[in-house]
Design goal:
GO terms for molecular function: zinc ion binding. This protein is of the alpha+beta class. It is 25% helix and 24% strand. A five-stranded antiparallel beta sheet has the order 1-2-3-4-5, with no helix packed on it. Strands 6-7 form a two-stranded antiparallel ribbon.
């Protein structure tokens, strides 16, 4: 997986997190989990934040894994090695075999307690439903100043069907949440796939 963030040292010697050229400072840490907030949180009332989890496991790029291992192979054996494409497929297969299976129902979805609450100790899950899992619907939006904004997944909805009624209910719940929390939406346009039910509901 490509790295989208890295740590940098400030002029005062403090560690900052660089996410697509946005700098965040460490708020707190719990075991291997670090909570970061925008360095302009106080000066410009910026509410951007990030959570990083330190892992002892390596998540090197596939090309790095192949290059590092081929460098240690005897020159006489290199010509007998599988192609880079075949090695990529093999590495992906090994990684996916170590991952847990995808959930088929909501009962199988286990969200760790750490991810159930925001930094303000509010429930992350706005609404819950005891229905079968039909799809994971995500809503993306730009975050940051217009010239430096990046698109992030902001809303995740587990939906039982792809009906127009369910999309309307989802959008209504989101509007209610925005109103209750006095957020300001600046939607100039909505881009969606060719799902007629979602288009009609929006």
């Amino acid at each position: 997986m490509n790295k989208i963030c890295k740590t940098v040292i400030s002029q005062k010697g403090k560690v900052k997190l660089n996410v697509h050229s946005f700098l965040l400072v460490k708020e707190c840490s719990v075991e291997n989990t670090y909570y970061w907030s925008c360095e302009k949180k106080r000066s410009e009332n910026c509410s951007d934040c990030a959570v990083t989890i330190f892992s002892n496991e390596t998540h090197d790029l596939l090309a790095q894994i192949i290059q590092n291992n081929i460098a240690s192979v005897d020159e006489n054996l290199v010509s007998n090695m599988p192609s880079n494409d075949a090695l990529h497929i093999r590495i992906k297969h090994i990684r996916s075999s170590e991952m847990p299976p995808q959930s088929q129902t909501l009962d199988e979805v286990n969200v760790p307690l750490l991810f159930q609450y925001t930094l303000k100790e509010e429930l992350f899950l706005i609404r819950d439903s005891q229905v079968g899992l039909g799809q994971l619907y995500t809503i993306h939006a730009p975050v940051g100043l217009s010239e430096n904004s990046q698109i992030f997944s902001l809303i995740y909805a587990l939906m039982s069907t792809k009906s127009e009624e369910l999309y309307m209910q989802l959008f209504q719940d989101l509007n209610n949440f925005v109103t209750e929390n006095e957020f300001i939406l600046r939607m100039l346009k909505i881009i969606t796939n060719f799902e007629i039910a979602a288009i009609n509901a929006s």
